[in-house]
Task: structure prediction
Amino acid sequence: MMRALILSLLALSTTACTFPAAYDPDPTSVYQWERRQTEITRREAERVRLCQMMNKDSERYERDCRRPGDPQS
Result:
């Protein structure tokens, strides 16, 4: 009985690993693309606003606010 339980749990745990991970599919309509772009713009504006309030010498500023290609000031 215990062996059957262990084997079934092992089978369930290994089959769960074979399913692909969930992802955000690409938008399919004009409205979905517009909503996606609006959300990206809103998030970037919020990031910039928060970065303007941070101490520019802090480690958090370096981690969260620097982007590749930004000039080093």
DSSP finds three helices and no strands in the chain. The first helix runs from residue 2 to 16. The mean pLDDT is 81.
